Structure formats: structure tokens, C-alpha cells
Automatic annotation (TrEMBL):
Naturally occurring in which organism (per UniProt): Panthera pardus (Leopard)
Protein name: RNA helicase
InterPro entries: DEAD-box_helicase_OB_fold, HA2_WH, Helicase-assoc_dom, Helicase_C-like, P-loop_NTPase
Keyword Ligase tagged: no
Any GO BP annotation: RNA splicing
Pfam families linked: HA2_C (PF21010), Helicase_C (PF00271), OB_NTP_bind (PF07717), WHD_HA2 (PF04408)
PANTHER family reported in the protein's UniProt record: ATP-DEPENDENT RNA HELICASE, ATP-DEPENDENT RNA HELICASE DHX35-RELATED
Sorted UniProt keywords: ATP-binding, Helicase, Hydrolase, mRNA processing, mRNA splicing, Nucleotide-binding
Source species taxonomy: Eukaryota, Metazoa, Chordata, Craniata, Vertebrata
Listed GO CC annotations: catalytic step 2 spliceosome
GO molecular function: ATP binding; hydrolase activity; RNA binding; RNA helicase activity
EC number: 3.6.4.13
Residue stretches making up the Helicase C-terminal domain: 162-339
SUPFAM superfamilies (UniProt xref): P-loop containing nucleoside triphosphate hydrolases
Catalytic activity: ATP + H2O = ADP + phosphate + H(+)
Amino acid sequence: MAAPVGPVKFWRPGTEGPGVSISEERQSLAENSATTVVYNPYAALSIEQQRQKLPVFKLRNHILYLVENYQTVVIVGETGCGKSTQIPQYLAEAGWTAEGRVVGVTQPRRVAAVTKFRDFFNQNETSDPTRDTCVILTVEGRTFPVDIFYLQSPVPDYIKSTVETVMKIHQTEGDGDILAFLTGQEEVETVVSMLIEQARALGRTGMKRHLRVLPMYAGLPSFEQMKVFERVSRSVRKVIVATNVAETSITISGIVYVIDCGFVKLRAYNPRTAIECLVVVPVSQASANQRAGRGGRSRSGKCYRLYTEEAFDKLPQCTVPEMQRSNLAPVILQLKALGIDNVLRFHFMSPPPAQSMVQALELLYALGGLDKDCRLTEPLGMRIAEFPLNPMFAKMLLESGNFGCSQEILSIAAMMQIQNIFVVPSNQKSQAMRVHRKFAVEEGDHLTMLNVYEAFIKHNKNSQWCQEHFLNYKGLVRAATVREQLKKLLVKFQVPKKSSEGDPDPVLRCLVSGFFANAARFHSTGAYRTIRDDHELHIHPASVLYAEKPPRWVIYNEVIQTSKYYMRDVTAIESAWLLELAPHFYQQGTHLSLKAKRAKVQDQ
């Protein structure tokens, strides 16, 4: 079908021309697999009657039989069948939680876990198993048909087209809420602002039905995320503008219309450049179908795809497994800790590229976690493996006592695990930016985040103070919890409890000890170049260093790709620290001389 949307060319904002192709090295197409939170159309029934209406109920006894008789049971179910909310209850009711045993329920995202926990508790006021057999049981779903509409030609700007499509649906279609998929927080907030303005303008024309526009992305505070599950009056149509956080694991009641931009932002690792970054790529057919299915939970729905049917046919059927597009250093570290020495011959379900394996081994060796025989070092490698963090963070934490700044590094490491500490409301942007600048320091983002955390603690973790300073209160509370967890590991490993007492140098040097591989130098072109492979990078506009005089040398936490490759969490350093703290990784010389030396070695 052709969608009721204007003609176009298919390319994403920020690129220089149309096209949906992307090199395999940068594809980060991955699909979160679990689909869990169930919309309940039987609200008038009792809780027990509602449970019996779910498709999984008729298989209850069969599931319990399989669990009793087989060591491993894989249950595959369509969205809305009740597998995640009901099966744990079946197991508990059958006695599997007796004698202190636990039934664990995991979810790929925080919002899915929270809603699953809520639904679970709303509904709840051994034999000789065959060891080598895995049973797979499939449960049918409960869905309604969804009509798919395509464009006749691609859109030049899917952000603008998303807004236009929402407003057209609102003015011409019947009842039902709208879910629009975009790639990231910035796009979501842009579309939310545009829709609010257009809704106000429409209201002035006398239209009786109003729009309630809500954002949905991973870094959004929890209380804001939960607003999308709230019901609205019949005179209001809810519009949810979301990233792929709404693609799986949750079901939002009332969604009838879905708008799919055709892109997704995911993490990808390029072994050729040794850069792991967030990159915008076309969705897979499986993800596109998953998005469309969001509109068929409670009644027949419609999905408007902002791309052509021909473009859909060219999309990959499934997403590239995360194992094949990630930095493998944490995975290899865990395998080594489990006693699997020959990781190159390990039988991965989705075998990763050999070059990614080699890069990961090189990084772990450079961090001191592996010896020349690729075995975990004692005690450093074993200790790094115990941290639930990127190995670079673990190395930095373990070295912090030697630099006399373990207190500061604990806070920085904890803050780096939290997304979106700074809150920038669309209607108070200038005020929020002005307040945030009070925490900024010339050294860069890491010490700026340290200032935020220390101020939060100084003000007794006060939520009102966070609101006044446009800070994510729950995020900071989470950072404090993470800090305590990391602190216990440092105590276990007898890392001295020391503070630099306001001196930034020990903290910066300690950062370099862990993140020396993520170093870049300022180039005459006005961009930065990575030391490792001369790849061009830029400072992200959200960095405190963005509007300052560019420091000559920097380290960064991660890279995000839009129209350019942007470094996030950036700190200025001295080049001498790289030679001092990572002499095995860097050597003195010009870029051309070192390049010639490497070429000579390869020729030999």
C-alpha cells in the first residue's frame, strides 16, 4: 500500500546524500529478543480470570511437566502471550521457590524490568532430568492484523515526515494512540517539541481532541518513562515518540498507529579502527515487523513506514548478533576467568570476526590483564575479571590507590555508568545550560561529573536540589549505589582509600592509566586524530570542551556517529603521560616515521 505521506528521497539527516547502504564493519543491527509486558484488555475481570485469558495458560501443566523432567527448557512466545508474567508464577505455585530457591526474571532494559515487576505483583497479592536434552516450546501470541503502508518514494528528512504523519493521523484517523520510532534522544526531543507546538496551533483552531505528547528513551528518568503507561481520557490522543526501547519487552496499551522511521541507533565495534561507537543504521526486517506489531496488541492497527517497499525488501532479514559487532574484551576476560584458555576455538553461537578477537586480546594484554601466553595475569587480570565493568574502567580503579585518588576515581567510574545526568527541559534550555556550567571545569567532562557527584553528596542527595540544578535525581542515586558496589571490590582487593584533595593531576593520570587506548591528538584540520590508527574524531557538542580552545591531547570514553564521529566524555591530558603510563603501547616519533617503521616490520 502507498502511505498518505508526501514524496521524498531516503536519507537520514546529517548525511551528504541519499542511500540506505552501510559497510558491514559498521553495521550494529541488533534485536533485543524478549517481549514481555502484556496489555490487559480484560480489565473488568478478576485478576485470576485475566490470567486464564492469556494464551500461555492452556499450556501451564505442560510447561510444569517439561520443567520437572528436563534440565533445560526454552519457551518461545509471541508478544502478549504471558510468558514473562505468568510462567514465574506457575513455577512459584508449583513449589519451585520452596526451601529458599529463586526464580529469576531478567529483562534487557530497565523500563521492562520495572513494568514486569509491577505486573507480577499486581497478579500475586525434583525427578531425574535428562541432562543432555533441551526442549523448545512455542506459545502462540494474541495479536490483531496490522495494515502496512509504504511511501512511494523515500523521505529527505524522516524527522519532519514523522511530525507530518502524526498530525495527519490525528486529523484524519479514528481513535487510538500513536507510537513513533526514531533513533535517539536528540531526535525524540526534537520531534516532541515540534509536535507540542503544532498541537497548540491546532488547538487554537478549535479542534476538540487534544494531543498528549510523551518521549520514551533509555536515558529518560524512570518517572518520566512510566508516564507512557498512564491512561488518558477519551478526549485526548496519546503520542509516544520513542527509540527502540519501545520496540521489544514492553507493550503500551492503546497503541493503534505506528510510525517507523526505518533506522535505529546501536552500538558497533569496528576492529579495523578499534573504535566502538553508537551508529545509526537501517533496521532489519525483523525489527521493522516487531515495530509494526506494536500497533496490533488490542485491536487492528496501522503501521506507516517512512520508506519504500523496495527499501524494505533490501533490508537484512535479521539483525547482526551483538557478539559479531561488539568489543570482545569483556567477553574474552570472562571466558578466561572461567578457565577457557583457548578462546579462539570456543564454540560461540554466533562466531565473532577473527579481527575483533585479536583486537580484544591486544587490549587486554596492553592493560596487563593477559600475559604473553594470553593467560590471565595474577593478580591484576583475575581482579579485572571480577569487575562488572569495561576492563578499562576496572584497570583505572585498581590503579587509583597508586595515584592517591581512589575516592575520586570511584565517583567518576560510577557516574560514567549512568546516562543523561544533565536534564535539559525543552522549555528551559538556556536556564538549564547556565546552571550546568557551574559544574564545568577546563580539564573536561570527567572532572565535571566528579563535581556534580560531590555537590550531590554535599547536599545530602536532595531531590529538590537536583530539580533546581536540572540534574537527574534517580540517576545520581543510582550512581551512589554503583559507587558503593565498586567500593566493596576495592576494599576486597586492598586498594588504599585515598583522596587527591582537590589536585586534578593524579586523577587525570589515573584516567590515562585505564583509557590510554582511547587517546587522540588535535590536528591542523581542526579535528582530532586517534593515536592508534589516525582516525578522525570530533568533540561532541555536549562536552564542556566543545566551546573551549581545543586541548592538544585528549582521552575519551566512547564514540558516537551521526554526521561525524564524536567523542563523548572527553578530558584533556598531557602527551607525556601516554609514554609514561603506557610505554608498551606508545612510542616517541612522528606519525609518518612510526607508520614507516610498522610497514617495515610487516614486510619482514
